[in-house]
Description:
Blueprint: E1 5-13, H1 17-27, E2 31-33, H2 37-42, E3 47-48, H3 56-71, E4 89-91, H4 92-101, H5 104-138, E5 154-162, H6 163-172, H7 174-179, E6 181-188, E7 191-199, H8 203-210, E8 216-217, H9 228-256, H10 260-278, E9 284-285, E10 289-297, H11 305-308, E11 313-318, H12 340-346, H13 357-372, H14 375-391, H15 396-418, H16 426-430, H17 435-443, H18 451-482, H19 486-506, H20 515-535, H21 544-553, H22 561-570, H23 572-598, H24 604-638, E12 661-663
Parallel strand pairs: 4-12
Antiparallel strand pairs: 1-10, 1-11, 2-10, 3-9, 5-7, 5-8, 6-7, 9-10
Helix pairs in contact: 3-5, 3-10, 5-9, 13-15, 13-23, 13-24, 14-15, 18-19, 18-22, 18-23, 19-20, 20-21, 23-24
Amino acid sequence: MIEKLRKVYFVIDKEHISAVLDKLFETQFVHITPYDKKLLTSLSYFKSLSSKTAYVEELHMIDFILSVFGDFGVGKKGFFQSFFPEDIAFTESDFNRIVKSFDLKNIYDQCVNLVNRHESLREEEDSLKEEIDFINSLGEFPFQYSVLNGTKDTRSLCFMLKNKDFVKFQSEEKELIEEEFFYPFASEKNITKVFLLYLSDDERKVFNALKKYNIERIQPLERVSGFREEEVARINSRFAEIGQEKRIIKARIGDYYKYRNDLIALGDFYNSLKFRDSTLENFLEGKEVCLVKGFFKAEDADKLDHFSNDEHCFVIEDNPDINDVIPVSLKNFPLFQPFEFLVRLFGLPSYSGIDPTPIVAILFSVFFGIALGDAFYGSILTIFGFYFLRKYSRNVGARNFFSILAYGGIMSIIAGLLTGSLAGSFFPLYFPDSAITYFLSSIAIIDPISPTGSLTFLIFSIGVGVVVQFLGIALNVVLKVRSKDYFNAIFNGVGWLLFLPGLIMLLLISTFPFLRNISYTFIGIGLAMVFVGGWASTRRAFFKPVAAFVNIYGIRSSYGVTSFLGDALSYSRLFALGLTSSILASSFNMMAQVIGGMLGSFGIVPLILVLLVTHALGLFINVLGAFIHSMRLNFLEFLGRFYDIGGYEFKPLGLNLKNIRIEREVKNNGK
């Protein structure tokens, strides 16, 4: 249900704003909201306060340190571990110790120094790799590399050219070759590498000769000056030193990883303080006082006493009015609470709307069970769900998700037993005369694989859709009555609840003749009401008959025959998914039997392996399909009939812990 909220105004002495804000933060029960812009215009002697840009530096330091852990692969989760949530818990005393005395600046500075040093080492590695590439490009160069840089009186050149150009160069430039030091030192495929040493005075002559040929110059590196063996040894030695230092840096960063949870807790704390300070934008500042508007849960009314007795703060309590933009807080029975997770995915209802969580909980579980439709898969999912539900019982998000899976697994067991599917046809195929096979046969009410059973299953799935659509229309009527829109509640709501069931009863008259008069009565009254609803939907007299007619189609009304037909037929996907689960599982069983039979007495091992692998794959695929389509049938076909999205989360000012939880300490009184 949607919890009842009360509105509250605080009139605060300007000199005590910080003290009152801190008290609101500590009591953690008031949701601060901004004032309407029109009101601000009329209250020209009031102005909005500016929020503090605080804790940006602290949050930056925390994000940087956490990113360093990720960049260096410290504490990296395994593949399967990454699918499961963390459960970070602190005692109150530990949390208070962290926020008061954690040396964030020192750890940040150390990490910055380590990262900078690691970056400089990486740059040096790149430089060494460049030197290696240079040495490799020269191959077995026989001289010291310093000769490539020339001297005061000489210049040198190292270049490559194609073999045919090399032959041409030798024949055409004999004079140059005789006068200068011309040394071909390597030949690779169709390329020849040449070292040329010449006098500085001959530079123009050399370049005039070389430009006639397609040469590719090898640029020298001044920092590479020794012989090849010396330079390779130097580079490899330095690579080893860098590698060792990088390992030391990673180890030191690993030492700081022990503070990761503390950093996450500190991040939640500073984000809460940042949010606290940002609420100052919602304070109206006058000459002597400040005004603050908020909402609180009616059950927390006693907490206002902390402010009513404060001489620096005057409190005005009131009920929300129609012009208020009211936050929404959901509160449901523990059995249904996990499904608030799904409702929030779709969007919170408006404060005046209906909380669909209990209905979504039931419908989602039923849809999921029918769509998965196998007792074996359902059993595995139920065990899996309850195991991790217990393991992560204190993690709200994980608890909700695994609860939903467990409930869906239970409904899948029921659906599987009623359709005779336990790992598909496993027992009838492998153990045709076993007690389990006879038991499954005795309790199954539908055989979805048989032609008759398939038709029954399809009709049942569509029947579920019809019932759900009627429920959606009924809830739409309730909402209209709540908003005092009685005309549309009757003529565009109740009218459909008479007309559509009347149409359905027409299909049953041949089997149940007594429904004839009831059907005609429902159709007549319902059709008349829908016509009136359409007639009144426009003020133009000329269009009133047209509006009344098209209202049946659903153009003028919020519903219609076409909408009903399309939405009801959409639930046939439950039949398709349930049938697919059973057929896939049965196919896996036959595949394993064939493979095992081909290998005779040695086939038991591959048979078991094939069963395990294929059914694991089938479980994953079918669970995914059941989850997605159950959400779709709730969000589109059901909630679309009545749901009014427009609410936003009730978030009282206070400590907002998104990534950790604090366990209250049990005080020992010496007993």
